[in-house]
Amino acid sequence: MGRLVIYAALFAASLIATFLYNGEAIGSIASGAVISLAIPLLDSLVANRLNLRHLWYSARYANQDVRISAAYLFRIKIDGKYLLIKGRRFSQLQPVGGVYKVSESGKHFLASIGAQDDSLIPIDSTSSADLRVRFKGSKIPKFYSWFDSRSGREDSPWREFHEELIGSGILPAEEFPFTFQDYVKREVDKIRYSDHAQSREMLIADIYELLPTAEQEARLRELIEAPHADVVWVSADSIRRRGVLPDGTTLPVAAHSQRLL
Predict the structure, then answer these.
(1) Are 114 and 66 spatial neighbours (Cβ–Cβ below 8 Å)?
(2) Beta bridge partner(s), residue 235
(3) What pTM value is reported for the model?
(4) DSSP 8-class letter at 254
């Protein structure tokens, strides 16, 4: 953002000088500066479009409550099929993953911006410390800057992978003492009004892709050949169609599964 501000200030100053000193040497120099600054200014605007969007939200929804939910999802893909697992809270098929957890320092930060626990999901031993909160829209830029710093919050997708696939016995612990994964992308939804939450809502999702070892891939293929009751493998097309299969049957595929594609 700092570079964007500098480019914008120089561009504005050069533009003003071009009009004030039109026909003079300084006006010609300023006109050249306007042209040379246009490209880096546009580049900075594109690079900072998310931060600019959040600044706009902070002004537009300054005094309104905004619900934030930040999660990570695992893309587990074998031969064009994606692994989905039965949800623990809702009767749906969804990617492995879940809401980030925050540490004590993260809780202190959230308290400093007036964040309140979200009541949409009951708070229990499972959901405790979930990064699912509500606060005034004016705090969105500060929240996102903190979230992006990765300080005071979970910074690995391992916990949910272990809980959902290893702790449950779906995959053997001896073959999955660790996982290696690529960070694929982050999706930050535009703010919208949620009837379900009865408030403005912004969802954040980080997508990771599992890079299995040869032994781990073999185990995953066994899971395809001998399916587990809590796991299904579906094509990208079926995910886009919200679970409609070629034979006409329908699986309860969660909408956020499309983030894997």
Answers:
(1) no
(2) 81
(3) 0.81
(4) -
How does residue 55 score in pLDDT terms, banded at 50, 70 and 90? confident
DSSP state of 164: I
Spatial neighbors of 197 by CB under 8 A, at least 6 apart, are 67, 118, 120
Contact of 100 with 151, CB cutoff 8 Å? no
- Percentage with pLDDT > 90 across the chain: 66
CA distances, 243 to each of 205, 232, 255 (Å): 21, 11, 9
Beta carbons within 8 Å of 208's beta carbon, 6+ residues apart: 72, 73, 74, 75, 157, 181, 182, 183, 184
Cα gap 83→164, rounded to integer Å:
12
3-class DSSP assignment, residue 136: strand
The two tokens of residue 169 are: 């016995």
Give the pair of three-digit tokens for residue 163: 């809980």
Going by pLDDT thresholds of 50, 70 and 90, the confidence category of residue 197 is confident
- In the chain, DSSP finds a helix count (H) and a strand count (E) of 8, 11
